[in-house]
Amino acid sequence: MKRRRVAVAAGFCFSLFVGTLVNLLFVPGFEHHQQGRSQRHITPSAATELPVANTRAELHSQIQERYYEVVRYQRHRANPTRLLEGRRLMDLALRSPATDRLTIREHAREMTTPLGCRDLDKVISHQYLGSGYTKAVYKASLNATFSVALKSVDFGGHDMDSCVRKYASPKDCYRLASYKIVKEMILLQRLKHPNILKLYGYCYQDNSDIKDTLTTITELGAPLEMIQLLQTSWEERFRICLSLVRLLQYLAHSPLGSIALLDFRPRQFVVVDGELKVTDLDDASVDETLCSSSADCFMEFPARNFTLNCSRQGYCQGMNEKRNLYNAYRFFFTYLLPHSAPASLRPLLDEIVNSTGELRWGIDQTLAQLEKVLTLYQSGQYLRNSTPDVPHSDFLPVTGSAIVGENYRCWPSYHHEGCLLSVFNVGEAIAICESHRQCRAFVLTNQTTWTGRQLVFFKSGSAKLAPDASKVTFLQVK
Length: 478
Hints:
The protein has about 475 residues and is of the alpha+beta class. Helices cover about 40% and strands about 20% of the residues. It has helices at about 1-25, 30-40, 50-75, 85-95, 115-120, 160-165, 170-190, 225-230, 235-250, 320-335, 345-355, 365-380, 425-435, and strands spanning about 125-130, 135-140, 145-155, 200-205, 215-220, 220-225, 260, 270, 275-280, 285, 300, 305, 395-405, 420-425, 440-450, 455-460, 465-475. It has a 5-stranded antiparallel sheet with strand order 1-2-3-5-4, covered by helices on one side. A 5-stranded antiparallel sheet has the order 13-17-15-16-14, covered by helices on one side. A 3-stranded antiparallel sheet has the order 6-8-9.
């Protein structure tokens, strides 16, 4: 009897172990996760069994389609009235295999960029930053003071993995994926704007499996963390929105025509020295939607739908521009613009948010209104005589001094352990101090923000007053 109980218990434990192992191995997403991060070389054996001729023709058709897209961007084609003609020519070209003779290396020959393969050989350290469906991104330090971002096809990513599984051709699948990087490289070179990431160079190298693997070398930016951004000052959040609108205004009137960012999410942007810059352009498009009536010009979003006008030339008027603008509204403006803004600026900011959310304004008018907000903020006109121009008699200035310690926290602050805010003048600093229950003094620093406003430390006391030639302290007189 005792042996039987032991056998039953052992069987139960074994079944539990097997069940747990099965759950771990076959839980949804586990296999893709392992391949996405650890499998760097995909073999054709993973492919789904399909008729070879059909799958090969289908894959080559996709490669040619991306190839011609790259060629169009190289040739600066930006005439919306020729869209239909261009598509017909492209369809004809896709039927001819002889048109796909160029290698991806040839697309970069005319580019003049300062960095290349020799510079990558001198990298002193590198760090994996992340990846999307197609690309993996790394941080590479070329020396002690200069770092760049490296982008290349992610061999274990979704695009390569799904393509090889379907078509059983790693080389052709790499070629298909690499054209997205080539397209982005060409756009980064063709489009010059302060809010577009800089292209520093590129490198073609052969590896053991695939010839001509491409790596692009770009400016390095910090990921846009929305949660962190919501905790910063309104001034910094306004700068992000202004940077974005300046970018979208340029894209609406770019040398290539009106450009839509089809994959418009915060993760497609980075921050460089406080400025927002777009980093992913492989899903950008200059093609305005063709139409025969306004019913074809339908834009659908999770919370709103819009119908635009169909022009006489047969394309939807301003669809690229307005798609970008509405995405800016739903991903950025609603969260970053009005919250904790100066009270006198909120009506104008609310109007900007509401008008872009309804698409009553185009990008030009939106930019003009944001520039107006900037002017009001930089000039101090937003204060509307609500703060004095000269110090109150209740505050005594002490030149060449600062207060050590005596900090208290406020929100939002430029300093996580103190209350560091920007002000237009001393009068605004006094008004802020009087509005804070803890404030008994403040220190004018010699630091300014991007708008030229002065940074001020607000203090809970003045017991530790110390000499500092670069600062001025204002003590509240009781």
